[in-house]
Amino acid sequence: MSFHDAYLRRTPYELAFPHAGPEGEALGPDPAPLREYGVLAFHAVPFLRAGCPALLLDTALCRALAGAWEEGGVPVPPGPAGYVQLPRHLFWTNALADSPPEPVDGFFWTVSAGEALHLLLVAGVRDGRPGLSVVPVAEAPLADAPAWLRTTVRGEGSDFATNLPGGELEGLYSLTAAGEVLKLAARLFAHLTAAPDAARAGSPGPVDASPAPSRLAYRRVTLEGAE
């Protein structure tokens, strides 16, 4: 098991709404997080209602998802809402056009009316930093999800290829367009339908670990369905 995916790290949901939990509590009496994280709240409410389902992807799976896609499976989300956490510092993005690249923590998914998929990429999550960076992905019809599996997003270069100097030496990836986020999500959903046993209950991280572990229950998703 890689250090980068050893346990579920504290999620953006927990950072933005520290008084909320998976047992059905409200998002808390303080309206400040709702104002500061308005777009995050759009995903946080259905995430809470769904029971705060969190998935942690292991490194080998992510490399398969970002590589040549050979697997079958139908890209159907495994629920109405959830959060997918990626291995630490494996994927990077520029949350703002003129900002330096930030490591991607993961993405929220929300399905509306059973027909449209909403994704929210979250980056810049680290211990000691107030706030985080979010990149909304425009609503996309779920009926188009099969086409996302093998679509070509970038006009030049390979999708997911790193744009960090020397990043290829570390085996890093970059998310440079909304289409790449949709492609990554669709491939994950297809993997889960093709290999449902690939998602298994994950163990909580050590209380004193850094980065701080999440308090949410989660499922670890692997490439082969066994570690």
Give an overview in words.
The structure is a single chain. By secondary structure, the protein is of the alpha/beta class. It has one domain (3-219). It has helices at residues 12-16, 32-36, 38-49, 59-65, 145-148, 178-194, and strands at 54-57, 81-85, 91-93, 102-112, 116-123, 133-141, 173-174, 199-201, 219-221. Strands 1, 2, 3, 4, 5, 6, 7, 8 and 9 form a nine-stranded mixed sheet that branches. The radius of gyration is 16 Å and the shape is globular. The termini are close together. The mean pLDDT is 89.
Task: Give the helix proportion (percent range).
Answer: 10-25%
Q: Count every beta strand, where a strand is a DSSP E run of 2 or more residues.
A: 9
Number of domains: 1
Q: Give the C-alpha Rg.
A: 16 Å
How far is it from the N-terminal to the C-terminal residue, by CA? 8 Å
